[in-house]
């Protein structure tokens, strides 16, 4: 029994660390894995779909669309997928699946174009080809930081300005990801920053157009797949998808009943309240307040009074007062 509880705890911790899989991320990952399987099976030439000076020298413009899905080794593929899942999920949740896929192609193509032009300006000995999902993931992070309201970011317990987050990730990923090209990653961050500034607003797709595309194939098929979240472009539908309404079952929360204030008369306050509990509240909680019989009062003379009151606890209370301001009580 304790062993099962231990495994459940590990599963909950692991589930909390791994972000939710969304349709756009899954599509990009599947395309990358499929292209890697094809190139491994047919034994493609190394760097056949990478971007660099050859894009302009030989007119290989198709590489601008294919290079983010191309990886040379399996280790590079796995690390790039991990970076994409952790760094680009927030952008898809903020704009929707259709707009995320459009932004992913736009950011990656623009980054590949600028890097190919930069690589063409360099000497032959210093040229290097770039590929993989990392540049597009860093561009997504830069775009997200331009629209977030958070001023501070946290990474491994260290606080720093949010605008510095892409550059911190740039240093980490360049050291960890195999075959990572630093100039291409820097250009990717700058491209994401420029798009966040609105420099590519003419190329942007509106939420209305994205909502129309969602009703067509293959996006209509993606909405029906269970276990993977399809994020709509509409703000209201996106909130319902990411923040579902919680309907608690009856009895999930404790409820305490209180008597309305208007039902208590000052005239019968003694009869309605017993030790801080009202009669209606005590009846709801299963407690029955003891019956307090009416007391008797005797008065003699203008300044003398004698009263006694008895309860079921067999207690007796006598009080005497006189006109001299003296009082005596016997209990």
The main pleated sheet reads as: 4 strands, antiparallel
Q: Beta-strand level of the residues, as a percent range?
A: 5-15%
Q: Using DSSP, what is the number of strands?
A: 8
Low-pLDDT segments, ≥5 res: 6-17, 269-289, 291-331
The end-to-end distance, rounded to whole angstroms, is 60 Å
Number of alpha- plus pi-helical segments: 14
> For the residues shown, what is the average pLDDT?
74
Principal-axes geometry comes out as globular
Helix content: 40-55%
Description:
This protein has helices at residues 2-17, 23-42, 54-57, 63-66, 74-95, 97-121, 134-147, 165-176, 182-196, 207-214, 219-223, 235-242, 269-272, 279-284, and strands at residues 152-155, 158-161, 273-274, 277-278, 296-299, 305-310, 316-321, 327-330. It is of the alpha+beta class and 331 residues long. The radius of gyration is 37 Å and the shape is globular. The model is unreliable at 6-17, 269-289 and 291-331 (pLDDT under 50). α2 packs antiparallel against α5, α6 (97-121) packs across α7 (134-147) and α8 runs antiparallel to α9 (182-196). The protein contains 14 helices and eight strands. 27% of the residues are buried. A hairpin with a 5-residue loop joins β5 (296-299) and β6 (305-310). Helix content is 49%, strand content 10%. The strands form three sheets. The protein has a four-stranded antiparallel beta sheet, with no helix packed on it. A two-stranded antiparallel sheet has the order 1-2. The chain has a two-stranded antiparallel sheet with strand order 3-4.
């Amino acid at each position: 029994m304790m062993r099962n509880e231990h495994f459940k705890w590990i599963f909950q911790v692991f589930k909390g660390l791994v972000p939710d899989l969304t349709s756009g991320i899954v599509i990009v990952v599947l395309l990358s894995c499929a292209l890697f399987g094809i190139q491994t099976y047919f034994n493609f030439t190394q760097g056949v779909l990478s971007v660099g000076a050859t894009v302009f020298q030989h007119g290989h413009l198709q590489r601008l669309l294919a290079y983010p899905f191309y990886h040379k080794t399996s280790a590079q593929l796995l690390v790039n997928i991990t970076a994409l899942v952790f760094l680009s999920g927030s952008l898809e949740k903020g704009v929707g699946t259709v707009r995320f896929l459009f932004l992913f192609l736009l950011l990656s193509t623009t980054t590949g174009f600028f890097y190919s032009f930069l690589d063409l300006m360099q000497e032959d000995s210093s040229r290097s080809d770039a590929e993989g999902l990392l540049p597009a993931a860093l561009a997504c992070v830069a775009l997200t930081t331009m629209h977030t309201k958070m001023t501070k970011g946290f990474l491994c317990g260290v606080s720093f300005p949010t605008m510095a987050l892409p550059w911190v990730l740039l240093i980490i990923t360049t050291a960890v990801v195999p075959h990572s090209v630093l100039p291409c990653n820097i250009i990717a961050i700058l491209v994401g920053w420029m798009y966040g500034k609105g420099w590519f607003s003419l190329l942007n797709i509106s939420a209305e157009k994205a909502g129309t595309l969602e009703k067509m194939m293959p996006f209509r098929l993606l909405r029906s797949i269970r276990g993977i979240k399809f994020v709509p472009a509409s703000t209201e539908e996106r909130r319902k998808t990411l923040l579902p309404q919680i309907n608690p079952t009856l009895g999930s929360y404790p409820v305490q009943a209180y008597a309305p204030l208007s039902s208590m008369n000052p005239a019968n306050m003694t009869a309605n309240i017993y030790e801080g509990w009202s009669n209606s509240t005590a009846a709801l909680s299963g407690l029955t307040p003891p019956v307090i019989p009416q007391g008797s009062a005797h008065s003699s003379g203008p300044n003398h009074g004698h009263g006694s009151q008895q309860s079921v606890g067999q207690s007796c209370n006598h009080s005497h007062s006189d006109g001299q301001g003296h009082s005596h009580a016997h209990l």
